Amino acid sequence: MQTGKVKFFNETKGFGFIIDDESNEEIFVHVTGLAGVTIRENDSVSFEVTEGKRGANAINVRKI
């Protein structure tokens, strides 16, 4: 599992971005990738990365 901080998440549109702690890379997160949690800007999270149609996507996102 990787860790990071939520940079932005729009609850209405259901997507946002996480900044990976190690690489500082922005990783896309969709509401379907959340593991039963609600995330907000600046939340610390753990996640896995999968390759999506447009690049890296965060899945199994959980608050830490």
TrEMBL record:
What CDD domains has UniProt attached to this entry?
CSP_CDS
Keyword DNA-binding listed: yes
GO cellular component terms, alphabetically, are: cytosol
- What Gene3D superfamilies does this protein map onto? 6.20.370.130, Nucleic acid-binding proteins (2.40.50.140)
The molecular function terms in GO held by this entry are: DNA binding
UniProt xrefs under SMART domains: CSP (SM00357)
The family database entries (InterPro entries) matched by this protein are listed as: Cold_shock_CspA (IPR012156), Cold_shock_domain (IPR050181), CSD (IPR011129), CSD_CS (IPR019844), CSP_DNA-bd (IPR002059), NA-bd_OB-fold (IPR012340)
Q: Is DNA-binding there in the keyword field? A: yes
Q: List the keywords (alphabetical).
A: Cytoplasm, DNA-binding
Primary localization: cytoplasm
The membrane spanning regions, by residue number, are none
* UniProt subcellular location: Cytoplasm
Q: Which SUPFAM superfamilies match?
A: Nucleic acid-binding proteins
Annotated CSD domain residues: 1-63
Q: What is this protein called?
A: Cold-shock DNA-binding protein family
Q: Which organism is it from?
A: Pseudarcicella hirudinis
